[in-house]
Amino acid sequence: MDFEGAKKYTLNRLENELNDKLHYHTVDHTLDVLDAVIRLAEMENVNGHDQQLLKTAALFHDMGFLETYNGHEEASIRIACEVLPKYGYSEKDLKIIEGIIRSTEIPQTPKTHLEEIMADADLDYLGRDDLYVIGQRLQYEWQLHGIISSLREWHEKQLHFLKVHSYFTKSAQNLRDKRKQENIKELETLMCVKK
Question: b/e per residue, 27-63, with b = 16+ CB within 10 A?
């Protein structure tokens, strides 16, 4: 597998071809998810070929945004299946990568350990200090796409999402749950939510 070649391909396309209405789903998000996948894979003792597959899926998981906003996961899978054989990925690799990419679809329903790592990596920021900075980018993107119409609606959706979300791996839970709970409390205070 030529991972570096596949990485160069994805980053080049994401940097040059993404719609300028995307403020959250950018090359920076892809790189952030890649970093999170590597960190969680190492914490979960996933190395070698499996880690390469995870890293590849992280790079391709939002490629579908080059073509569509809704249902981008299926477009991402199709692009990965078209492109990755040129970089030495086997049919078996592609089936695993397909499942890993599909695990990022909301609501997340990962079926394997690798899919759980990817699902957690994609939403790693929910349990970090930079939740509000990153969230602001998603809020703006959603406004541009007509998904939300007010700041209040955004805060309500974000708070609900944080409350129903759960990390799948023990590593993500240990690393991010405490800060995620603090983020929920801060949002409740901001919105004057009664317990």
Answer: bebbebbbebbbbbbeebebeeebbbbbbbbbbbbbb
Q: Which residues constitute the domain of residue 82?
A: 3-190
Please report whether residue 84 resides in a domain.
Answer: yes
Q: How far apart (Å, rounded) are the C-alpha atoms in residues 120 and 54?
A: 12
Residue type for position 17: E
Q: Which two tokens stand for residue 63?
A: 């490629």
Contact status, residue 42 vs residue 35, Cβ threshold 8 Å: no
**How many domains does the chain fold into?**
1
Model confidence pTM above 0.85: yes
Instruction: Classify residue 195: in a domain, yes or no.
Output: no
**172 within some domain:** yes
Two tokens, residue 31:
């790189």
8 Å CB contact between 82 and 39: no
Domain of 181, CATH number, reads 1.10.3210.10
37-73, pLDDT tens digit by residue?
A: 999 999 999 999 999 999 999 999 999 999 999 899 9
Helical (H) or strand (E) element with 48: helix 48-60
| Nearest Cα residue to 154 out of 172, 173, 131, 176 | 131
- Cβ atoms of 61 and 73 closer than 8 Å: yes
